[in-house]
Amino acid sequence: MARGLRKGLTSYGDEGFALFLRKAFIKAMGYSDDALDRPIVGITNTYSDYNPCHGNAPALVEAVKRGVMLAGAMPMVFPTISIHESFAHPTSMFLRNLMAMDTEEMIRAQPMDAVVVIGGCDKTLPAQIMAAASVDLPTVVVPVGPMVVGHHRGEVLGACTDCRRLWSAHRAGEIDEVEIETVNGRLAPSVGTCMVMGTASTMACITETMGLSLPMSATIPAPHAERLRLAEASGKVAAKLAVEGGPRPSDLLTPKAFRNAMVVMQAIGGSTNGIVHLAAIAGRTPHRFALQTLDEIGREVPVLVDLKPSGAHYMEHFHHAGGVPRLLAQLGDLVDLDAPTVTGATLREVVATAEDVPGQDVIRPRSAPIKAEGSMVVLHGNLAPGGAVLKQAAATERLLQHTGRAVVFDSVIDMAARIDDPDLEVTADDVLVLRNTGPKGAPGMPEAGYLPIPKKLGRQGVKDMVRISDARMSGTAFGTIVLHITPESAIGGPLALVRSGDMIRLDVAGRSIDLLVDEDELARRRADLPAGPVRPVPERGYARLYAQTVLQADEGCDFDFMVRKPDEAS
Ligand code: FES
Ligand code: MG
C-alpha cells in the first residue's frame, strides 16, 4: 500500500513524475528526504481568531507534532474551517455540515496515513467525527478541553449556564449595569470550551466513550500542562496507526459504541444537541440512531455526574474526580466494556486504570444518583409524530405534567418583537410555542428553543415555563423545554397548526406532547396552510444546498446525500 507522500498519487501515466513534483514542491519548505520518506500523520488546525474556544489549538498542534515525530512519523498540519458558537451567522449548526465536508475532503485529498483532528467548540467535534467516519482513515480526536472556572463575589461561575442565569437576573432588575459588565469579564476566564455539561463537554465525553480519543481527553482543562501531554501522547498513537495500522473509525463506531455513548449521555446530564450529532455520526456509518433506544436507556441509566446545568459542579471538578474512566467504572454493567478504543485497549482496560478519588462527590455511585432516571426523554404525540426531546434533568419537576394555553410565536423575529411587550397576553401557566425554527425553517435549527421568560413574568419572579419548539437549545441552558419537534413546522409539521389559545398537554411520565384540538379542526387548519415552502429556497450557494438537502432532527440534520447507505462499501 502506498504510504506517506506516495499516497493517492495520480499518475496520468507517470506516477514517478507525480512523486518527483510533490517532492520538489514540499522541499521548498526545507524538508529532508529522511522526513519525506516516512508515513504521514495529518493534523487539522482549527485555530481562528473568531474561535476563542480553540485558543490553545496552536499549542496542541505543536504537542501532537512532537508526539508524531517522537514515534518516527512525519506530521503535516493543515487548516480546516473553525466554527464558534457566538460568531457563526445565522447559526453554527448551519455550518456544521460544511465543516464536515471540508474536513472529509481535505483528509481524502492530501497524502496522510492517519489523522489527528483537534476540535471542541460545539459543532466542531461532531463535524470532524462525521468526516472521520466517512473517510475511515485511522483517526485520533484531540478535544481542546474545557475552560477553567471563573469567580464572582465568592461564587463559582461558568460559561454559559451562569451567563443565562445572571443575564436573566439583570433583565429582572436584580443586577445593575455595572455589575453585569464585571460579570461579563469573569464568565469565560480562559481559552477552551464551555466548562459546564453543555454540548462541547457532552461531545467530548461521548468521543472518549466511543474510544475515538485517549482516556481523560474530555475533561483535562484546556490551559493545563496535562492537556499538552495528552496531545503529545495522541500524536504518538496516531504515528503508530500510520506506521503499523490499527483501529479505524469503522472498527470503533459500532452499535456497542453508540449504545455506550447514549448511556453516558444520559448519565452525564448531557446536552440535547448531542442527540442530533450522534444521529448524524451514526448516519455516516452502516448503523442508525433510534430516538426510542435513547429513551429506553434513559429509563435504566441514572444521572451520576453532578455538573451544571442539571447539577452543581464544572468540568474541572469532573476531571479531578476521575473523569470519564471513573464514570464508566461507576456505570459498571450498564456499559459494554468490551468496546475497543483507538489505542488498542478496550474500555475495560481503561476502567482498570481509573483513579478512585477519596471523598469526591462529583461522580456519584449508582446507589446515590443525582437523578434515578437519565437526563433526556423522548416524547411523541400528535404534535410530534417524528419525536421531540426534553432534558428532564434540567427541567422543573412540577411542570413535567402540565396542560396550558398556547401562546404562539411564528418565528424568532416575531418572538423577539413581542415577548417583552407589556400587553402580551401571557401567564406563568401558559405554554410558549415557537415555530419555523427547525433545520429548514430558520434555517439551521438555531438554539432558539430556550425562549426567554416574558419580562413582565420575570419581574414577578417566574423562573420557568413550559416552552416548545422545533428549534434546539444550548446544552448550557435550563428549563422545562420541549425541543426538536419533528417534523418541523416549515415543512408542514403539526406545530404549524397550533393557534394561540389552544390547549397543549405535556406528559413526561407518559412521554407525550399533544395539542388538545380535535382531528376535524386540525384537518381544516391543515387545508388552510399556505401551499409551498414557508421560506423560499435560496437562489445560490451553500444556503441553497442546505435548504434542499438537510434532513430532520431525528436523522441528525445531515445532508441527505452524505448519509451512508447501509450496504455501501467504505
Ligand atoms: Fe465554544 Fe461554548 S462557545 S464551547
Ligand atoms: Mg453550546
From TrEMBL:
<dbReference type="Pfam" id="PF24877">
    <property type="entry name" value="ILV_EDD_C"/>
</dbReference>
<dbReference type="InterPro" id="IPR020558">
    <property type="entry name" value="DiOHA_6PGluconate_deHydtase_CS"/>
</dbReference>
<feature type="domain" description="Dihydroxy-acid/6-phosphogluconate dehydratase C-terminal">
    <location>
        <begin position="361"/>
        <end position="557"/>
    </location>
</feature>
<dbReference type="InterPro" id="IPR000581">
    <property type="entry name" value="ILV_EDD_N"/>
</dbReference>
<keyword id="KW-0479">Metal-binding</keyword>
<protein>
    <submittedName>
        <fullName>IlvD/Edd family dehydratase</fullName>
        <ecNumber>4.2.1.-</ecNumber>
    </submittedName>
</protein>
<dbReference type="Pfam" id="PF00920">
    <property type="entry name" value="ILVD_EDD_N"/>
</dbReference>
<dbReference type="InterPro" id="IPR052352">
    <property type="entry name" value="Sugar_Degrad_Dehydratases"/>
</dbReference>
<feature type="domain" description="Dihydroxy-acid/6-phosphogluconate dehydratase N-terminal">
    <location>
        <begin position="38"/>
        <end position="349"/>
    </location>
</feature>
<keyword id="KW-0456">Lyase</keyword>
<keyword id="KW-0411">Iron-sulfur</keyword>
<comment type="similarity">
    <text>Belongs to the IlvD/Edd family.</text>
</comment>
<dbReference type="InterPro" id="IPR037237">
    <property type="entry name" value="IlvD/EDD_N"/>
</dbReference>
<dbReference type="GO" id="GO:0016829">
    <property type="term" value="F:lyase activity"/>
</dbReference>
<keyword id="KW-0408">Iron</keyword>
<dbReference type="InterPro" id="IPR056740">
    <property type="entry name" value="ILV_EDD_C"/>
</dbReference>
<dbReference type="InterPro" id="IPR042096">
    <property type="entry name" value="Dihydro-acid_dehy_C"/>
</dbReference>
